[in-house]
Amino acid sequence: MADMMVKMVLLVIFFGMMVGIGLYCRSHATDVNGFVLGGRSVGPWLTAFAYGTSYFSAVVFVGYAGQFGWKYGIAATWAGLGNAFLGSLLAWVVLGRRTRVMTQHLDSATMPEFFGKRFGSKALKLCASAIIFIFLIPYTASLYNGLSRLFGMAFDIDYSVCVAVMAVLTAIYVIAGGYMATAINDFIQGIIMLAGIVAVILAVLQSQGGFLLALEKLARIQGDSAVPGVYASFFGPDPVNLLGVVILTSLGTWGLPQMVQKFYAIKSEAAISKGTVISTVFALVVAGGCYFLGGFGRLFSDRVDIAAEGYDSVIPAMLSGLPALLIAIVVILVLSASMSTLSSLVLTSSSTLTLDFIKGNIIKEMDEKRQVAWMRGLVVVFILISVVLAIVQYRSNVTFIAQLMGVSWGALAGAFLAPFLYGLYWKGATRAACWASFLFSTLVMLANIFWRQRFPALLQSPINAGAFCMIAGLVIVPAVSLFTKAPDKERLEEIFSCYEKTVVVTVTDSIGDDR
Fold it and tell me: Rounded distance, CA 198 to CA 193, Å?
């Protein structure tokens, strides 16, 4: 009884804090710029934590860490390292500054709006908005999946009630405070995630006699491989498919709208530099820690039945023997990861649909107040849809929804990564090339759902297919651009002029040239 009381008290404090911050930030969400971007005045710590918590959800902690840790052993840690250095550090270095400068110059608040203005095509904007709507909704539903087993382990609460409570509380603080409330909550949730991951790893390894003894036990497990000690090895039993996981989960952030739009809101040059370091360290601890923890999953094979329960049962089985207080922290950790990503996704979806699809097309005239009202209403709609999808999948095991969730990252990042990257850096990128990238990735990933068996063996995995689409886009865009109509030179000069503006900085930022 005392253990349950501790868990409930921690949950009430956590939820109360989230809602209180949402209500506190109401003054920042009175216009479109404030509701969607926080007035483009968000500092490095909030932006870096918002980026990291949007990146890592319960899907990573419960699903991916369990699945890939079981398949690849300790080598799954490479996915976490890829997330830190390719998905965070390099993404901030390559995209951060240019995204902030060009999107402000073009006055674009969403990724579809960027494509529409950068390539001079309203149709591109509408198409990008449709792709986001189609593939973000099922991804949003997937965030609830990791909660069912953890709540079943920690509380005697029906999964549907858990999902509904989480959705309602997330909706309250997003609707009330917009991006600023989301960013502040992400910061608090990020701290919980950092502390929780470290505590869980130490506790799980301690239960196996410490790191060295756990590694020795893992080396004795043969599992599905004929190679002795392969699950404790550097590259694991299947380095080729592991590389696909690293590419999809790391390079994918470069083309995901809910991730890239974090750069739209950052405050200054100094904030970008600090945010780069903070975001990388955050990813190293959270993602590296998750996959590292999952790598020891086979040590708990006596508690796991993969054939009957699936990979989602691995992490809960590893945690089931921990003290009540630590289990409560884990539950709040997973709630934090899920709510932060959920808030980012629904804010991205509602702003995209309002600003890029409804405004100017369905409703010709929309003032600032009306646009914010529509976005708040659509936050409710998107959360309701995600709740329904999550409960339907949980109760009836609808595999179509699960498949669609699996390909969402590949479709979104495959479609957007290359045209966004080249659009920031290269004047030669054409409208036709952008269309080619959109169509190629969405068609390939949709085909992977319905005709997966007809794909080559390596690409039958949605993860490998998604990684292939991202890399293919980087070739398709320049190739198509070379053979299609070049953009108008005067217009391009005006767009890229944002990088040519002169600014005065202090010696602490640049030593300069004495001459």
Answer: 9
Instruction: Pick the closest to residue 311 from 77, 57, 71 (CA basis).
Output: 71
H helices within 65-158, ranges in order?
Answer: 65-72, 77-84, 90-91, 97-106, 111-118, 122-142, 145-154
3-state secondary structure of 109: coil
User: Residue 152's pLDDT is what?
Assistant: 62
Q: Return d(Cα 95, Cα 111) in angstroms, integer.
A: 13
Provide the 10 A C-beta neighbour count for residue 305.
11
- The per-residue pLDDT for 508 is 58
pLDDT at 311: 74
Q: How far is CA 118 from CA 158, 493, 502, in A?
A: 48, 12, 22
Half-sphere exposure of 132 (CA within 13 A, CB side): 31
**CA dihedral in degrees (181, 184, 187, 193; nearest 10)?**
-40
Q: Name the token pair of 408.
A: 């969402």
Find out whether 274 and 44 touch, Cβ atoms under 8 Å.
yes
C-alpha distances in angstroms, 230 versus 143, 201, 222? 31, 21, 7
Q: How far, rounded to the nearest angstrom, does the alpha carbon of residue 303 sit from its chain's CA centroid?
A: 30
β-bridge mates for residue 363, sequence order: 359
Q: In Å, what is the CA distance from 7 to each residue of 129, 336, 340?
A: 41, 15, 20
Which DSSP string do the residues of 459-473 spell out, in sequence order? GGSHHHHHHHHHHHH
Would you state the pLDDT for residue 269?
Answer: 75
DSSP 220-250: H--TT-SSTTGGGSSS-S-HHHHHHHHHHHH
- 97 neighbors 91 (Cβ within 8 angstroms): no
> Which residues of the chain, if any, have pLDDT below 50?
515
DSSP 288-327: HHHHHHHTTGGGGGGG--HHHH-GGGHHHHHHTTS-HHHH
Which single residue is written with the structure tokens 């083309």?
A: 255
Phi-psi category of residue 158: left, alpha or beta, with phi > 0 → left and psi -120 to 50 → alpha: beta
Residue 373's SS3 state is helix
Provide the residue type at 248 as one letter. Answer: L
Q: What is the DSSP string of 400-411?
A: HHHHHHHHHHHH
pLDDT of residue 319: 80
Q: Which residues pair with 359 in a beta bridge?
A: 363
Which residue is listed with tokens 């694991």?
Answer: 236
Number of Cβ atoms within 10 Å of the Cβ of 101: 16
Strand partners, 266: 42
Q: Given its phi and psi angles, is residue 397 left (phi above 0), alpha (psi -120 to 50 degrees) or beta?
A: left
Helix (H/G/I), strand (E/B), else coil: 363: strand
- Reading the block at residue 28, the tokens are 């920042």
